[in-house]
Specification:
Blueprint: H1 3-12, H2 14-54, H3 66-75, E1 80-89, H4 92-101, H5 105-109, E2 115-126, E3 129-137, E4 141-144, E5 154-158, H6 168-179, H7 181-185, H8 193-204, H9 221-225, H10 229-247
Antiparallel strand pairs: 1-2, 1-5, 2-3, 3-4
Helix pairs in contact: 6-8
Length: 248
């Protein structure tokens, strides 16, 4: 193809070439923007981590957050009338995170449906008046008055000795003494929502056979063995940042 023929070809296909050039330019711009955002995000995380480390704000959780404390101050010492164990399928984002950190061994190991498990307490405010208080462990311990019961949730009534006076505060304090400060407040592979809830029920010693409602594979050492040492390092790093989020 000589120069004259090439010029004629370019002139005849100028619209098509302009379109190709525009698409290529747009693609390059998108790649540059994504690269800048990624670099900015990484630098933000690093700076945030260094600030938290420098000012000593990256410690383990050693207490309830402000909102949970306020609920416990009002309702924590009231007599418990009823207890419900609630099971709900874990969030898809958490499922994906476990898969990534375990290099997809999580999919082979987990139950067909893996559950987040927590407790709903009904406390007596005054004669004939009760209030519901939800207690669950996510990245820290959350004590809430507001909650949503979804269609996928399972509510299991827990029978216990009502001749004894149980309060939320007394149960939580007894559980904390037994499992230790770190395992009580902080989420880890050895102290996740199911282990936390299981230990609370163990404190109450209910009449209901509650062990059947837990995924006992989560309690075994093989659960930890799914994660590579570097994966555990990443998970712990994420937990450190989330502990800061919890306390603030």
């Amino acid at each position: 193809m000589n120069i004259t023929t090439m010029i004629k070809y370019l002139y005849g296909n100028k619209i098509k070439l302009m379109l190709y050039s525009s698409v290529l330019l747009l693609f390059i711009v998108i790649i540059i923007v994504l690269l800048v955002i990624f670099i900015a995000w990484i630098s933000y995380i690093c700076i945030k981590y260094m600030k938290l480390k420098m000012f000593g704000q990256l410690n383990n959780i050693t207490d309830y957050n402000v909102k949970s404390k306020s609920v416990l101050d009002i309702y924590g010492d009231l007599k418990i009338k009823r207890i419900y164990l609630i099971k709900t399928p874990i969030d898809t984002i958490i499922d994906l995170l476990f898969n990534l950190l375990s290099l997809y061994h999580w999919n082979k190991y987990k139950q067909p449906v893996t559950h987040h498990i927590f407790l709903l307490f009904e406390v007596e405010v005054e004669r004939g008046v009760t209030k519901h208080v939800l207690v669950e462990k996510i990245n820290g311990i959350y004590v809430n008055l507001e909650y949503i019961i979804k269609e996928s949730n399972q509510l299991i009534p827990i029978k216990f000795n009502k001749r004894k006076t149980y309060t939320i505060n007394s149960i939580l304090e007894s559980t904390k003494k037994r499992i230790g400060l770190f395992n009580f407040y902080n989420w880890s592979l050895n102290s996740h929502c199911q282990i936390f809830t299981y230990n609370i029920l163990k404190t109450i010693r209910p009449k209901t056979k509650y062990k059947q409602y837990f995924d006992m594979k989560w309690f075994s050492s093989s659960f930890n063995n799914m994660f590579h040492e570097f994966s555990i390092h990443l998970l712990n790093w994420c937990l450190k940042l989330s502990s800061y989020h919890y306390t603030t």
